[in-house]
Design goal:
single chain; 138 residues; alpha/beta; Nucleotidyltransferase, domain 5; five-stranded mixed beta sheet; 33% helix; elongated
Amino acid sequence: MSFGSFENGSNTQPMAEINTTPLVDVMLVLLVIFIITAPLFHQAVPIDLPQVNASKLDDKPRVISVAIDGSGKVYLDGSLMDKAGMSAHFSQLTTQNQQPELHLRADRTTRYDKVTEVLAEAQKAGIVKIAFVTEPAR
């Protein structure tokens, strides 16, 4: 049911205006509430922390770059490596560093079993952060 004018001969179509006064009232009440409560969110306990001279910890992990060419040769950090040398290199790096990252780049024509050999050796050494390096699609 819509309200119109009280004249008898006037147009009887419904009123197409939206009364925004209640909306403005509600928004102003919410604004006042947020203005009052905003300073309460910034309560902190004042603590006088001690000052010390300490060296900054290096959080960047060591990155092991492994490349496998199309013929199945494995290169660790640019040098050709066999399976035994790769295993020794992985275990040496895991004892030196907390958790190295392995960045694996494999040629498109590399057999899958060569990739799984490298991943198995990394897993045996305890390396869990492994990234596959690819080229972006053209």
